[in-house]
Design goal:
126 residues, 2 strands, Double Clp-N motif, 7 helices, mainly alpha, 63% helix, two-stranded parallel ribbon
């Protein structure tokens, strides 16, 4: 079964690209995926973080400060290997659940399965 990305996930990935450009990064990383989720707001992944009582503004600020660089805007940014692994994990999650589309919650689950990333989010639980 081949799953496609939902409109919400496409929007999150698009926002991730914009965030990477805004922060002067030359690749889209896992941090950009989370910034895309935070920017989108109207998705299950965002609501999941709210239910976990994550201080979303502090998390956003920490991510932005830790990855900001000073490259020029780029028309096309590749996913780095880690972000690609996360997106493929989200796809596998959707397939395992027999969903036809990869949704924001699949993306969040893949992010939370990454130990380092989950630890970063955990430090912002209120």
């Amino acid at each position: 079964m081949s799953v496609k990305f939902s409109t919400t996930v496409k929007e999150i990935i698009s926002f991730s690209f914009e965030e990477a450009n805004r922060l002067g990064n030359n690749t889209i990383r896992t941090e950009h995926l989370l910034l895309g989720i935070l920017r989108s707001k109207h998705n299950a992944a965002y609501r999941q973080l709210e239910r976990m009582h994550v201080d979303l503004e502090a998390l956003k600020n920490e991510i932005e400060q830790s990855i900001q660089e000073h490259h020029g805007n780029v028309r096309s940014l590749p996913l780095d290997g880690h972000a690609e692994t996360i997106i493929m994990g989200a796809r596998r999650e959707a397939e395992a659940l027999h969903n036809k589309k990869v949704e924001a919650e699949h993306l969040m689950h893949a992010l939370l399965n990454d130990d380092a990333f989950a630890a970063q989010i955990a430090t912002h639980i209120k």
